[in-house]
Amino acid sequence: MEIKIIQGDITKFEVDAIVNAANSSLLGGGGVDGAIHRAAGRELLEECRRIRRTSHPEGLPTGKAVITKGYNLKAKYVIHTVGPVYGHADINLLAECYKNSLKLAEENNCRSIAFPAISTGVYSVPIELSAKIVKDAVKNFKSGVIKEIYLVLYGSNDYRVYKKEFEA
Ligand code: ADP
């Protein structure tokens, strides 16, 4: 299993699954969530609404993950997970987001997966803390099916922080 740190726009990734930093409503939002919904098209929102009606009427709890199709994206699937709001939810739930997303990807036979830096935008987790938690979570993951994990950073400073942490 290879871990690749890349600066870019996750909506453009040609991988089996991209991960969305969703909120518990699953009905879209700002940041990477909004960008993924815009690129995937309305059908993604419709599938998210069905998930809300059927399996998660109260919303998706922090740290959990669900999978949908990718629709107009190049990615076959979108895995939606809800990160912790910094200072308001248990920070250990951030690792759960990554672990549960990887598990779901494996169950769906994904060989490649791309993650944004969950919770580091509106949810305010410092990028240095995110890099440490993510490094620990992905390096300890026992992969079977997954061969490539892309960690996608949007900003150049975020990219530098991740590079430094993963090279340490
Ligand atoms: P959260 O609410 O989990 O903090 P945000 O979407 O606000 O989610 O931010 C999470 C991270 O995603 C931030 O580091 C932000 O810079 C980044 N981001 C925003 N748009 C994109 C994109 N198109 N591709 C990859 N990362 C993105």
- Straight-line N-to-C gap: 19 Å
Strands of the biggest beta sheet: in what spatial order?
1-6-5-2-4-3
In helices, the fraction of residues equals 25-40%
Secondary structure class reads alpha/beta
SSE string, helices as H and strands as E: EEHHEEHEHEH
Task: State which percent range the strand residues make up.
Answer: 15-25%
User: What about the largest sheet?
Assistant: 6 strands, mixed
* Average pLDDT reading: 98
| Number of strand segments | 6
The small-molecule ligands in this entry are: adenosine-5'-diphosphate
Shape descriptor reads globular
List unreliable stretches of 5+ residues: none
Tally of DSSP helical segments = 5
Task: Please tell me how large the radius of gyration is.
Answer: 14 Å
Structure description:
- The chain is of the alpha/beta class and 168 residues long.
- The chain is 38% helix and 20% strand.
- It has five helices and six strands.
- The protein has helices at residues 31-40, 42-54, 92-107, 127-139, 156-167; strands spanning 2-7, 17-22, 65-69, 77-82, 112-115, 148-153.
- A six-stranded mixed β-sheet has the order 1-6-5-2-4-3, with helices on both faces.
- Strand 3 (65-69) and strand 4 (77-82) form a beta hairpin.
- 44% of the residues are buried.
- Adenosine-5'-diphosphate binds next to helix 1.
Summarize the structure.
It contains five helices and six strands; from the N terminus they run ββααββαβαβα. By secondary structure, it is an alpha/beta fold. The longest helix is centred in the middle third of the chain and has 16 residues, at 92-107.
